[in-house]
Design a protein that fits this description.
It contains three helices and no strands. It is mostly helical and about 110 residues long. The chain has one domain. α2 runs antiparallel to α3. It is elongated and about 55 Å long.
């Protein structure tokens, strides 16, 4: 979790403290994205037009790309706060992972022949 920088100590208060409901909401959203991905790749449409599935995959891809390329001070590839453990992990793992995930979803939406 991102922390505010307090002087030279590079420690501080967390930017936010997500509660149980927020954590559960994120877990449910990511689980639904995984289910939608499996349905899309398997060719199941559940009665929805294939174009709608493609749009959904593209939206998910864009959301991940926006997170990865964010200009927020505390997260994203263009962040300005670099001295915390979260910032280091975000630079090496979280943001690049979001960018790759976003590109993968966009490739599935428009570049693949699924």
């Amino acid at each position: 979790m991102p922390h505010r920088i307090d002087g030279e100590s590079h420690t501080g208060m967390p930017l936010f403290k997500p509660g149980a409901v927020a954590t559960l909401a994120v877990a449910v959203a990511l689980s639904l994205i995984c289910v939608a991905l499996v349905l899309y790749v398997s060719g199941a449409t559940l009665g929805l037009p294939r174009a709608l599935w493609r749009i959904g995959m593209a939206v998910v891809g864009l959301v991940f790309l926006l997170r990865g390329f964010s200009w927020h001070p505390y997260f994203g590839l263009f962040k300005t706060v670099h001295g915390t453990a979260f910032a280091r992990n975000d630079t090496w793992f979280y943001s690049p992972g979001c960018v790759l995930t976003g590109l993968g979803f966009l490739w599935l939406a428009w570049g693949s022949q699924l």
